[in-house]
Amino acid sequence: MEQAGRGEQFLENRIYAEISVGDSASLVRTLRPEDIQLFAVMTGDINPAIVDQEFAHSGIFREVIAHGMWSASLISTVLGTQYPGPGTILVDQSLHFVRPVTIGDTITITVTVKQKFDHNHHVLFDCSCTNQEGVPVIQGTVEALAPQEKIKRQKITLPDVLISDKHGRYQQLLARVHGLPAIDMAIAHPCDYESLKGPLVAAEAGLIEPILVGPESKIRSLAEEHGFDISQHRIVNVKHSHEAAAMAVTLVRNGDAEALMKGSLHTDELMGEVVSRAGGLRTGRRLSHVFVMDVPTYPKPLLITDAAINIAPTLEEKVDIIQNAIELAHILGCPEPKVAILSAVETVNPKIQSTLDAAALCKMADRGQIRGGVLDGPLAFDNAISIVAAKTKGIKSAVAGHADILVVPDLESGNMVAKQLEYLANALTAGVVLGAKVPIVLTSRADTAETRTASCAVAALIAHAKRKTA
């Protein structure tokens, strides 16, 4: 008697009297990477042979394997949901783990009634788990107490589970810079915990060689207080934050550093020195800021610009803002980024300036005034990132639903979008200023060391790209 139990809307059990020797039931599951992560989170089993890809590939199996009890737990699933079904209580089990289960393996779990015990209504099952090649991975027996009363209940729909592995995404970003030599980065006034820890973590990861510019006594005291080792790093002693900003810019201008990073000083202090016509870091391009965001609910990195520098950019300034972002996308490995120019609506409305700008920018791209990307706009936010929303509104576009870059109308809207994604959607965030002679890591004073380090990784990629074109 074969009990499939698949595709039905109800769970119905078999009581002891209805169970016969030889009855069997089966379940088929394919191991996915997220199964391993979920099982590790649930059990706390972070054995590196299972959850650490680098370690696993150096182990005896040469690949990531499942927790042994992942497969074993599916035996309980068959018993409790298929045969005998609800009300079954597992009493004892004896299992032999024959071979490991690896990602992509399809496992068939079969339980077969071997023996019944009338005195206590226990049932002994033979258990077999085989992979897609029919090779056993688990063999053994399980003893269970059969259900005492008939049960028929509607199946419960389980909630969707989203794995938000921010640390994993952070490591993937750092891996993009792996093997590249560290760049010299001037850190302007690293005089609080996060602004000092960030560059030190980035240095430990091999991304940068930090030049700490600020009051030396304050920096050393802070390092001692928190146990930071700064003995290997250069300190440029200045009196206060404004002088730190000026000196950091001078170091860059003199070629002592390939990048600049804001510490615990106000943005205006640093950017005032950057844009100074006398001794700043201006180029012919308008400066703009880009958030590089990895959002768990979006299938690829998302660039948002400008949410930190240009308050209410003009049409001409938006051309530079877009070109800066496109060139960053190229550096990050996107050869032809899809650029969505955002507004509140997806049609041109003379009363909404951002829609007029969007239409003009798209035509400018058609005429080659903006190069290297595919532009479309105006697009509302939902149409830019959701193909379902775009199709519902009848929008036919290569960009809608697939945006790589979101160009916001102004700083206010951009800052809100970026911060919402960071704090409500658990996005991994990096931020960098483009259009200057070197990349500038312009972090918020509330940013964590992880965010600062991620931003250093992006800046390092930009600096190395500049070396190739120098």
Explain briefly what this protein structure is:
With 470 residues, the chain is of the alpha/beta class.
Task: Describe what you observe in this structure.
The protein has helices at residues 33-43, 48-51, 53-57, 68-81, 166-175, 193-204, 216-226, 241-253, 267-274, 315-331, 353-366, 381-385, 387-392, 411-424, 449-469; strands spanning 2-3, 10-12, 24-30, 89-97, 106-117, 122-130, 136-145, 152-154, 183-188, 208-214, 234-237, 259-262, 288-294, 302-305, 338-342, 374-379, 405-407, 428-434, 440-441. The protein has 470 residues and is α/β, with parallel strands linked by helices. The chain folds into 2 domains: 2-154, Hotdog Thioesterase (Thiol Ester Dehydrase, Chain A, Roll), CATH 3.10.129.10; 166-469, Isopropylmalate Dehydrogenase (3-Layer(aba) Sandwich), CATH 3.40.718. Helix 11 links the parallel strand 15 (338-342) and strand 16. It is elongated, with a radius of gyration of 29 Å. The termini are far apart. 41% of the residues are buried. The model is unreliable at 1-7 (pLDDT under 50).
